[in-house]
Every structure is written in structure tokens, then in C-alpha cells.
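> forwarded from #structure-qc
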């Protein structure tokens, strides 16, 4: 159907059924999935990241996926690497005359490839690190704020991340770079009313906790030597479940805090997508309450009308 150079994107808030819809579309369009999730790149982080790998086999057919399970726990992965990996996967899929289907909810990663932001590899600068050694965090934070807006507050809550963020900002100031290539996207976002989405989040969280998410975190700590402090950078589930495993929270407090935090996260996701739309990015809403086949038909008809 249409020009396979276009990337069909199923994006949106957590717990809206993106994977199931994307996989069905890939099946119908002879396509493959490119994951746009900042945590699904990590091996051994399956339940907490919602990989749902069983969903990639439908109608007795396995749908190939890319950018899932490509890093070891503890390895650094960032927007720059995602852009490069995304491009490689995109061209790989096109070379085999398949349809690329992007699926995910990591808004910074999605915006980076849709809007074509310039990111690059920035080497460490030992001389700068030495100069900063005796400076308080507040001074470095002020320097960083003067150079770039703070999209990610975790950059200023950890000394190493703060120094790295400042290092990157200074490098980019002195070394401007051409933009990421402009790629053709057709984006769709399943949407639910807020109250219903909260119910979906709660139901999914209960299922994940009952089906091994706690054991997954224990395995990351015991078998892969990730500390409770490290796990906080892998998302809300890993942060709070790790605190429960470490005895810092009881089960009920962990569940309530996590349920509330995921709902707040979903709200921030929606805000970011709306900002993308205000910048001129077209995102077609898909009524989450439609029967699944109707959702698929809606997307396929919109694709046909947009490309053909």
C-alpha cells in the first residue's frame, strides 16, 4: 500500500494498546516494527518496559522488530544513539522492500526523529571535569541553564549527569551540526478519556506485578549488579519496585505511588505530543474505544488517503 518510504508511527500515552495496533498494521502492510522506547533497548527489562514480545506473533506470523534488546543493563543509551540506530533500521527495512512501522511512547526519542533534531557523539573533556571538581552543583546548574532549556530534570539531580549535560551543551555551542535528515512520517495516536486511561494503567500495573515484575527487578539487582540507585534511571517501575525490594517501601505504598506516578507520566506524555502538534507535526487521533478491527481500518484508510 502506498510509498513504503513513509514511516507509519503508532505513538502516544502508556497503556493505550500501541504495540497490538502496530503489529497488526505491520502484518497487513508487510512491515516491520521499529521500537521508539528508551527502555526497551535493554535486555532483561521485559515486564517493566512493556515489551509484550508475545504480541509480535499474530495470525501464525512473526513480525520482525528492531531496537529491542540491543543493550546490556547499565549500558548508556541516549537520543544520539537512537537516531543512528533508527536510521540504520529504517534503511535496512527499506532495502528488503518492507514497510517501516514505528511504535513507542518515548516522546524525546520520537520527536528527535520526527522533527530532525541534531544530536551527535560528544567526547568526554577531562580538562573541564577537573575545572568543575570543586564547584558546587548550583553553579554548574546555572551554567547549564544559560546554554539550554532543561527538558530532563534528572540531569541536575546527579553530579555525573550534570557534568555530562554541561559538557554536551558546551560542545554543541562550539560545534554546530547539520540537522537529522527529514523523514516522511504518518503518525497515529490511540486516545482514551482520562478516567478510562487511569483504569487501564491500574489494571496493567496489577497484571505486571502479579506476573513477574518484582522478580525481574530482583534479577537485575542480584544477577546483573544494578544498584537501587541505578535502577531509578530506568523509569518509574524500576525505581519504585527497587525501593520495595530494598525494604524502603511496603507493597501497598509502592503500588499506590507507582500507579499515581504512571498516571502523571501519561499526562506529561500527552502534553508533549500536543506541543509537537503546535509545532506543526500532524498526529491523527484514533478513538481507543473503537473495536480493534475498526481501529485498524481507520488507520489503513487514513494511510491510503494520505499517501495515495
Amino acid at each position: 500500500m502506498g510509498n513504503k518510504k513513509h514511516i507509519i508511527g503508532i505513538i502516544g500515552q502508556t497503556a493505550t494498546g500501541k504495540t497490538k495496533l502496530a503489529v497488526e498494521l505491520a502484518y497487513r502492510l508487510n512491515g516491520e516494527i521499529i521500537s521508539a522506547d528508551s527502555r526497551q533497548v535493554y535486555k532483561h527489562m521485559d515486564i517493566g518496559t512493556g515489551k509484550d514480545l508475545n504480541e509480535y506473533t499474530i495470525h501464525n506470523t512473526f513480525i520482525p522488530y528492531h531496537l529491542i534488546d540491543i543493550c546490556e543493563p547499565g549500558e548508556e543509551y541516549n537520543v544520539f544513539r537512537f537516531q543512528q540506530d533508527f536510521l540504520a533500521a529504517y534503511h535496512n527495512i527499506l532495502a528488503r522492500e518492507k514497510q517501516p512501522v514505528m511504535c513507542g511512547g518515548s516522546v524525546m526519542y520520537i520527536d528527535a526523529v520526527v522533527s530532525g533534531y541534531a544530536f551527535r557523539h560528544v567526547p568526554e573533556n577531562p580538562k573541564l571535569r577537573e575545572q568543575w571538581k570543586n564547584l558546587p552543583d548550583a553553579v554548574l546548574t546555572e551554567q547549564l541553564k544559560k546554554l539550554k532549556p532543561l527538558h530532563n530534570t534528572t540531569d541536575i539531580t546527579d553530579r555525573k549527569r550534570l557534568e555530562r549535560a554541561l559538557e554536551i551543551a558546551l560542545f554543541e555551542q562550539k560545534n554546530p551540526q547539520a540537522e537529522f535528515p527529514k523523514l516522511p512520517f504518518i503518525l497515529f495516536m490511540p486516545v482514551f478519556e482520562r478516567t478510562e486511561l487511569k483504569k487501564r494503567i491500574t489494571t496493567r500495573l496489577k497484571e505486571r506485578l502479579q506476573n513477574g515484575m518484582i522478580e525481574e527487578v530482583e534479577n537485575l539487582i542480584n544477577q546483573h549488579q544494578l544498584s537501587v540507585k541505578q535502577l531509578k534511571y530506568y523509569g518509574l517501575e524500576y525505581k519504585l519496585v527497587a525501593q520495595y525490594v530494598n525494604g524502603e517501601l511496603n507493597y501497598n505504598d509502592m503500588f499506590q505511588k507507582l500507579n499515581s506516578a504512571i498516571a502523571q507520566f501519561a499526562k506529561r506524555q500527552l502534553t508533549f505530543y500536543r506541543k509537537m502538534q503546535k509545532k506543526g507535526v500532524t498526529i491523527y487521533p484514533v478513538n481507543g474505544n473503537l473495536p480493534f478491527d475498526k481501529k485498524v481500518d481507520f488507520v489503513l484508510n487514513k494511510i491510503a488517503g494520505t499517501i495515495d
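QC bot note: The chain has two domains: 7-117+179-307, 126-174. The chain has a mean pLDDT of 92.
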